Amino acid sequence: MTIWIALLLATFAVGASAQCKCESMKWATCDGTPCQCSIMVDTGITQNLDCSTLIPKCYLMKAEMYRAKNNLSTRTGGKPVETAFVDNDGIYDPICEATGAFRAKQCNNTEECWCVNSAGVRRTDKGDKNLKCEKLVLPLFANQEKFAPSVDGQKLEMENILVYYVDEEAPTFTMKRLTGGIIAVIVVVILAVVAGLLVLFFARKREQKYSKAEPREMEAL
Ligand SMILES: *[C@@H]1O[C@H](CO)[C@@H](O)[C@H](O)[C@H]1NC(C)=O
Ligand SMILES: *[C@@H]1O[C@H](CO)[C@@H](O)[C@H](O)[C@H]1NC(C)=O
């Protein structure tokens, strides 16, 4: 009888531990009753996760930076598939709010900071540590209804769907970084024009010389 109870308890325990895993994050480790999953985000620092929903991107980026630093496996090149788009600057070590959202100002553990939107993508020029980021800029969702277009009353099937997020507020990049490049282009254009004018000038001078030389030769004859 005790053996049966022990066996029953053992199978129950195995069943429980098999269920205790994170479906939405393969790098998470899960333990305990009730099942709690967490992920390593820094040396000696773990972040508890709610695996019943999508893991916040801020935690994913933190975990990925930690893994890259410690020579653990990461996604190849920060991309899930080769055709995926990546953020303009690549990944950095973000500061996350308690909710899992990105903090509006990010510095990647350096003296250089910038403001991000809710996807953690940079939306301002890079500045120093005193840079002010008023609030986290959210995406603009004008229409929250399910997108289901139809043609002549027939539902339109789509093969490839590309979703563009547009922020509520426009980014505030300035052309500061481009100034050097623009000056270089202007200098090259001016040099090209001057060179062209010089070639034209000398070509015309030579032509004039010939036309002047001809009558003189005639005189001499
Ligand atoms: C990182 O891992 C690879 C293979 O897993 C190994 O060859 C390499 O020596 C490791 N580098 C460091 C710095 O630990
Ligand atoms: C953040 O810093 C790491 C080095 O610690 C670097 O590899 C990475 O490119 C930086 N990311 C950005 C967006 O500056």
From TrEMBL:
The keyword Plastid does not apply. Pfam families: Thyroglobulin_1 (PF00086). Residues 1-18 form the signal peptide. Keywords: Disulfide bond, Membrane, Signal, Transmembrane, Transmembrane helix. The keyword tRNA processing does not apply. SMART domains: TY. Gene3D superfamilies: Thyroglobulin type-1. Residues 55-133 form the Thyroglobulin type-1 domain. The chain crosses the membrane at residues 181-203. PANTHER family: EPITHELIAL CELL ADHESION MOLECULE PRECURSOR, TUMOR-ASSOCIATED CALCIUM SIGNAL TRANSDUCER. This is Thyroglobulin type-1 domain-containing protein. It comes from Oncorhynchus tshawytscha.
